[in-house]
Amino acid sequence: MKLQLLVFGFAAMTSANAAIVINATEVGGTVVFSGSGDLDLTGTGAPFVGFSGAPGAITPNIGAYSTDLGGAGFSPLDSYNVISSTGAFGAGVANVAGVPTGDSFGVSTIAIGVPQGYTSFIPLSFTTTFGGTFASLGIVPGNYVYNLPSDSVTLNIVATAVPEPSMYIAIAGALGLGLMILRRRKQAKAE
């Protein structure tokens, strides 16, 4: 009985940990998509060649992102149908000017593309950098999920807060007050 529970617990833990998470953030004058994880392809059926990854591409108005290191780009990926998704992640149109590193990967509202010959639970890691900001690329911050029968890809588009000038004044004031208190304590100990 204990062995059965241990085996069941391990199987549940393995499938629960399988997922690709992509985080998109603004860094200076660029937008960086960085993803990692693995996928459980159970129940997806045979792959089809329908997703061609661009060297580094986003098309927010159809919820698509891809990164491909296949040389000239637009090399075919093994594709699997998405059974549901949260849809587009903005109104922007195709931008194929991204600079990719890592594994080839693609996701859209209709398919997920992985390197040809990919099998379940093999770790993937990739990053693509685009010139511009979320606004200039037509990207809307939020969380977007693309579901396969046994797994999912999550795209987290995180808008980083840029401090207002008044915040810098408040920080400088707090720092000055702290230094003043520290100085008075040193003077009190010296007396």
Q: How would you describe this structure to a colleague?
A:
This protein is an alpha+beta fold. The protein is built from three helices and 13 strands. The longest helix is centred in the C-terminal third of the chain and has 26 residues. The radius of gyration is 23 Å and the shape is elongated.
Task: Name the descriptors.
single chain; 191 residues; alpha+beta; seven-stranded mixed beta sheet; six-stranded antiparallel beta sheet
Shape: elongated
The description of the largest β-sheet is: 7 strands, mixed
Strand arrangement, major sheet: 7-12-13-1-2-11-8
What's the helical proportion of residues?
A: 10-25%
Strand segment count: 13
SSE-based structural type:
alpha+beta
The fraction of residues in strands falls at 35-45%
- The average pLDDT value, as a whole number, equals 83
Low-confidence stretches: 1-17
Radius of gyration based on Cα positions:
23 Å
Order of helices and strands: HEEEEEEEEEEEHEEH
Number of helices: 3
Q: Determine the N-to-C terminus distance.
A: 74 Å
Write the topology of this structure.
Blueprint: H1 2-17, E1 19-27, E2 30-38, E3 48-53, E4 56-59, E5 64-67, E6 75-81, E7 84-85, E8 99-102, E9 105-107, E10 111-114, E11 124-131, H2 134-137, E12 142-147, E13 152-158, H3 165-190
Parallel strand pairs: 1-13
Antiparallel strand pairs: 1-2, 2-11, 3-6, 4-5, 5-9, 6-10, 7-12, 8-11, 9-10, 12-13
